[in-house]
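Anyone? Bumping this.
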Amino acid sequence: MASAFDERVRRRDAEAKTTGGATYGADLAVAGMLHAKVLRSPHPHAAIVSIDTAAAAAVPGVRAVLTAADLPSGITPYYGYIIKDQPIVAIDTVRFAGDVVAAVAADSEAAAAEALERIHVVYRVLPAVTTIDAALADGAPELFPEAPPGAVPRYGAGARGALRPRSNVSYEFAYQTGDPAAFDRCDHVFEDEFRFSRMQHFHLEPYVGIASATRKQIEVWTSTQNPFPLRRELARMFRLPENRVRVNVPLVGGSFGAKSNCKTEPVAIVLSQMTGRPVRWCMTFEESFFTNSQHAALLRLRTGVMRDGRLVARQSEIFLDAGAYSGASPLVAEKCGYRIPGPYRYDFIDTRCSCVMTNTTPAGAFRGFGGAQATWASESQIDMIARRLGITPYAMRALNLLHFGDPFVPGETAIDSDLHVGLDLVIDELGAIERTPNRGVGFAIGLKDGGGINKAAQARVKITTGGEVTIDCATVEAGQGARSSLCQIAAEVLSTPVDRVIISPIDTDQSPYDHGTNASSATVVMGRAVLAAAERVRDEVLRFTATALSCDPSELRLENWHAVRGEESHSIAELVLREFGNIGFQFAADGFQKAPLDERAPLDSPCVFWEIGWAAVAVAVDPGTGKVTIEKLVVSGDAGKAINPLVCRGQDEGAAMMGVAQALFEQMVFDDGILMNGDPLVYRVPLAEDVPVSFVSILQEQGRGPGPFGAKGFAEGGLLPIAAAVANAVDDAVGVRITELPISPQRVHRALFLQKSPTVGVTA
Amino acid sequence: MAVSDLIDDRLDGDETPALRFVLNGVEHTETVPARMSLWELLHDRLTLQGTKLACSRGVCGSCSVLIDGVPQASCSTFAFSIDGRHVDTIEGIAAAAHPLCEAFAARSAFQCGYCTSGMIVIAKALLDREPHPTRQTVIEWLSSNVCRCTGYAMIIEAVLAAAERGADG
């Protein structure tokens, strides 16, 4: 039988998704459901003086109007990860333009929308801080004068966290290892500052959920990546036992980190409790821009080197723009700070990363999870230092790269890919370019700890009388193909065709427990749980068959639901029917996976694997306009073992194109806290015409991942190195260094102007 | 929602025009509210849920359908405007076993799949006009739609493969 990992094996959702047969959260309806709409603040920061909802409530078809005054007593109306500071609806204060002030449930979306226009809110506008710099300025207005509601998680060696170490900073992560005196030994110490732009996830399926709730129990059907953590959060907020909250998750139409923790659910739940009817809230596309985003960042790096290019010490001070509420920001700060060393050896590392609260859209989980920000600064500075020392960027990296098996930092998982191999691959593929004026090449390596911290996953594998296989697990399909990969893993273990394996729908009342579909973890972490369950159920089947055939299980192997012993082949279905009185049976076994706790690891648990993205790029810069054109882009990742090679390719290329957009043009633009391009018509995402003329992705299978059959996670690495590789190529082409994203024509043109006229008193 | 924002004031919102149209090759008669979008008619009333609503502004192309062979954003098209027209959706294209569906499935030219119906619709419109498009032509056509997942290369290749297969068959 062909391997379950053959390139011709199709995704399990291929037919549904290419024929219009796939059903998403946005397609769902529940009998009798109402429709919700919310009123959002026009002000970045204001006190709510009064809200008059009488006229709204009188609109025909309106069933309930929700403001802070209507929140039921006895609930905890705030959510977030480490810091729970975001209210279901604004309580006394709005903190960004787009903050939810009130909500309406009505018979139709149109009636709800009409009602919103009749809600009269009186605001007292407060001074706002809408950028990192403004929030950190002395005497800046504060978003949260009180202590953040939360607790610092446990860390291991060298790491610590702090709640609200200064005004407008909700959380700071710090990590140190080695001897601070290392800086004294350096021949040179370079200090550079970088700015990272903020993108929106732009998932095509909007945020959508349906809630059916009473004060005693809640059921939601929602587009989320993390059903069980959401269940726990909702149980906590609504003070219900966890087993009285039921979360159902259909196919998710794109997420990239966006659909994590509470989004539509709390508003829909309260409205459902108020009306006694199921309530659906499908946000508009524009509302996505008010709900979640990537983190803009200011990154200051201080890096000490020897004159031969050897890296000795690195310090970082990073400020992430967390927006108005904490959400996942403390976790992103942790990862951004932790990843700032990049894939290199140092004698000393000292990193701090803070969440800065601003009166803008809350930032949260976004593909890369702090790794994109860290890689942008780190890989830009490595190139800058090489050029200052007069050595090539390649030699600089070759000298300092961690080797396979080196720990990233003491106590952490060893590097599980050969970094040099990947670098040489992308550079060789890029090939020699014609060294004409204004053309150049650059490369970069992104690295992130993958698989999540201390993640737990359970799975169950069931086999019917006829040999059809069902996997129960809560891995969410948001496009990444993980549920197909899990089917392939089970099929390989059970020696059965992949098309005989399905995964059951996600329902927290029925599905085995899982920490969530994030951090590129599913194929490795859930994959190991599925692998264990499949091996167990296989062994159980072999024991059953051996008993029936009066032989030893070790004499048998499975092959397409037959027990094979030498030349004999026995139908297991027939043996089952004989044993179970012609009615039938279902075999089942469970699998479990969790990384160990280990206080020697800085983040309290060694990372599961390293996700690495290599990129090499050739650019042409138009000196007249500053426009940068990517003439060739080569990206590569190490899948360890590609469970589905085409899926891996799609992940790497999709992530890389997000990186291209971040590098060249895509960003949310705020003016005094008002989002200027929060609309699909003017917010620019990459189109087919933005794909570089020459775009090559190379799938590596170095075979040393911790997942089933040597697999590693693969969903984010492609994004990490692109922006720095482009900046490095622009420097190579025209000798200007862009340290702020995006690398827009305006920015490059200005830098070229300053390069030619250094005496003109213009500050960049 | 988007369509009703733009509704022509001359139309009474309570008016219910009666329509006759051919949907995926089958004649239909429907009476619809004047404000109903074509997407609502297809997705909610006729339960053809393969056509996906995303931006609601006629920008992203996810809700594309063919009206007399021309790709249109069903979110931004009034249902009443299809009176007397031929409408084809992903379901009709799939039922006819168009090589595009097979090419997208075999080549994994999708991820979350939310844009896929629209991509196949726009590609069909292209192949109906130009059975042998150049790569550049494919790129120009697909650039009317957004895919946030794939990075496009595999979609472009699937359309070219379908064109080749269509020519063979």
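Late reply, but here is one note on the structure posted above: Chain B touches chain A through 54 residues (CB under 8 Å).
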